[in-house]
Amino acid sequence: MKKPLENCTFVIIGATGNLARTKLMPALYHLYVDDLLPKDIHILGIARSIADRKEWLAELKTDLKERARGGLDESIFEGFCRRLDCLRSGLKTKEDYRLLSDYIGQQKFSNNIAFYFSLPPSMYASIATSLSEVNLLTEDQGWRRVVVEKPFGSDLETARNLQRHFERYLKESQIYRIDHYLGKETVQNVQVFRFANLLLEPLWNRNYIDHVQISHAETIGIGSRSAYYDGIGALRDMIQSHLLQLLSLVAMEPPVSMQAEDLRDEKVKLLRSISPIAKGAVSSHAFRAQYAAGDVKGNAIKSYLQEDNIPQDSVCETYAALKLYINNWRWRGVPFYLRTGKRMKEKHSMIAICFRQTPKQFFRTSQVEQFKPNWLLIGIQPDESLRIELTVKKPGLDMKTKVISLDASFNDEEGRDGYEGLLLDVMEGDHSLFLRADEVEASWKIIDPVLHSWSSQQDYIQTYPAASWGPDEALRLFEKEGQYWRSSLEPE
Ligand code: BG6
Questions:
Q1: Residue with the nearest Cα to atom 2 of ligand 1?
Q2: Which structural domain, as residue segments, surrounds residue 95?
Q3: 237 CB less than 6 Å from ligand 1?
Q4: Has residue 155 been placed in a domain?
Q5: Which of 112, 123, 301, 335 is the Cys-Cys partner for 466 at CB 3.0 to 4.6 Å?
């Protein structure tokens, strides 16, 4: 049984932005519905564009009507609103921060305060400085925690600078670098699946595994996020954080324990074992592209360059693929392929592990096709599942085979979002599912050579039609002829 949570104040800086509206507020509402929040919590939303409390709550209600699991319950929503406060402020000047500090003091909010920086990463450093100047980060009367989204920095150097800046005002124990993928049910299940079952461990290495694919595809484009996305791109937005986290969970050694530091030590060790991509080898290890116009069932879809506020010469990638090798005893020589794309044909994220071919194809003469290798598929979304593909005999007199899939699907009926558990972890002070500074640094080291190479090629980017599986040219990353991206959990 977990201890009941201490009372706290949860401050969202940037409360009217996309993240707060689509993820944070729905997550807090769901936690409230499930009675998991501290009883006297205050949630304080701060934004320049908040007109007044009434209007803010009305907008929140509209958002939650669309997003609340099982629909919005009016009476529960009323109770939730009693826990909410808002402050209209651009948090630009010293005076703004002084007013914030006074406001928190006057309202008699709890002195345990979490600040969620739900703003562009370029603002993190100045917010930390300003909060510290009005003593809001000092832990003399209660804990003070800061939650930041990825990307933490925009490359290795800026991440190090930001870290040095944070260290002036915050202890590492006060910083929560969030990666919402670590809050996803199936992602957590990767650890349980690997470390609570003996069956797979003997196979989990270079002797049996041919290659690993970690793939994230979404049908949405960049929507209203041009200010954030252009200049960030898919490599920083998805691969540097979420997909490298998935890779480290799949490939790391068993940790000493499941405690935060032991777990993070193992992930860092794994990330540090990834072979650096040499400057001259970027094109054989990385691929980028941008969505062009397309259509779905006759409905036209805009190209990236037609999205609002995108410069017409932007070469920002909306699709990125990477091939990495882990230079350790377990994985040496096994390619790990990572892929992400916006405006893809279907929404799907999965980890696909392809085993080696059997050493001898016994039944080759009696059937047309060569045996398919075994695959182990971990569906992350929309299907949360675990499937193992095996070749079996087709019933009948002929020696014919087919591929079947052993399905251990575990869809979370509740459809919880990764943010719910992670916000609770912040309130509880549990860092296990948050990134440590050295982990972020190790991730930037991996992708820095690619970022630098791409940033020097500003005159051209390959395109792919919206609503497609991305450019075929990305197949060139595969080491072997005939290999392809798995895009489905169904046997192929
Ligand atoms: C975010 C990225 O971190 O993750 C978005 O900034 C992306 O661009 C999103 O769409 C994907 O998350 P999920 O949970 O929908 O796969």
A1: 237
A2: 9-149
A3: yes
A4: no
A5: 301
